């Protein structure tokens, strides 16, 4: 696809995000996403604290911008058994250290879209995940109306395995999310009748637990509980009260 908005022929390169990217990274997240991320998240990204990241830069940009971010992806390794999709993977319970890679944020500056940059960034994540024998999948959430992103994941052979009702709360309104998975290292979803039954029971148990937790929460009138369990970097309750846009984790939208 040809992008009419950039006048020069870009030379796109990929590298890890580094401390000098902090300001641009924060600005891009604020420009691109409808949710706000706290400082701790950005610090963790630029210092590679529990988060892996890749930046896309255009080496042919003039006036000292040749190393400035024009795209990014951030991700983290999580223990499979601690995620909401642990039940959707066949894995050996005798190996509790099995992991997944969760894509937290992905974005490309508007003028550089439709050039294959997001596809390349995701390929970097898949390559990284595949390099860990214990890792069985890359997964992410996407808000249900984000058609470009949904097309991208489908085109890259991610499987949509779940629709999570009301997963996002943005400006007081709930939106569903889709959960997309890309299996690596022989990871796969259950397929024999017994495996499907075990997965279904496990899913129903976790759903019942969620409903029970919500009921308890309503009874107690306590503040909002985190909805996205994979991300340990939760926006603080104090910070959330000050936001017009609310999000309980650093998940992609
Ligand atoms: C979604 C996003 C990351 C795509 O980035 P991109 O660099 O333009 O994507 P690519 O050029 O790599 O596109 C790869 C594929 O995605 C799909 N795609 C990308 N943009 C699309 C659009 N606007 N409409 C339909 N499909 C689209 C296409 O299938 C495309 O393949 P093709 O070119 O062979 O048709 C970008 O639009 C973006 O930053 N959006 C805002 C932030 C966001 O939504 N992030 C994802 C949150 S989960």
From TrEMBL:
Q: Kindly list any coiled-coil regions of this protein.
A: none
Give the first-level EC class, as a single word. transferase
Reading the lineage from the top rank, the first entry is Eukaryota
Q: Does the keyword NADP apply?
A: no
Q: Which GO terms describe its molecular function?
A: histone acetyltransferase activity; protein N-terminal-methionine acetyltransferase activity; protein-N-terminal amino-acid acetyltransferase activity
Q: Which InterPro entries match?
A: Acyl_CoA_acyltransferase, GNAT_dom, NAA60-like
Sequence similarity: Belongs to the acetyltransferase family. NAA60 subfamily.
What is the designated name of this protein?
A: N-alpha-acetyltransferase 60
């Amino acid at each position: 696809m040809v992008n009419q908005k950039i006048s020069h022929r870009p030379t796109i390169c990929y590298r890890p995000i580094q401390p000098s990217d902090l300001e641009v990274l924060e600005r891009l997240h604020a420009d691109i996403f409808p949710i706000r991320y706290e400082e701790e998240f950005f610090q963790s990204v630029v210092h590679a604290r529990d988060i892996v990241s890749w930046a896309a830069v255009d080496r042919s940009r003039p006036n000292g911008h040749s190393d400035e971010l024009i795209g990014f992806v951030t991700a983290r390794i999580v223990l499979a058994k601690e995620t909401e999709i642990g039940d959707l993977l066949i894995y050996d319970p005798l190996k509790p250290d099995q992991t997944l890679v969760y894509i937290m944020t992905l974005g490309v500056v508007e003028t550089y879209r439709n050039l294959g940059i997001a596809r390349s960034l995701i390929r970097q994540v898949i390559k990284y995940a595949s390099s860990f024998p214990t890792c069985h999948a890359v997964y992410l959430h996407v808000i249900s109306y984000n058609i470009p992103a949904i097309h991208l994941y489908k085109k890259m052979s991610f499987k949509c395995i779940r629709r999570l009702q009301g997963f996002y709360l943005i400006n007081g309104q709930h939106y569903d999310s889709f959960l997309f998975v890309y299996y690596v290292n022989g990871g796969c979803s259950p397929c024999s009748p017994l495996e499907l039954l075990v997965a279904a029971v496990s899913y129903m148990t976790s759903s019942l637990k969620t409903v029970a937790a919500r009921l308890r929460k309503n009874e107690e009138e306590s503040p909002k509980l985190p909805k996205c369990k994979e991300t340990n970097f939760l926006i603080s309750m104090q910070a959330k009260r000050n936001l017009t846009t609310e999000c309980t984790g650093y998940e992609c939208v």
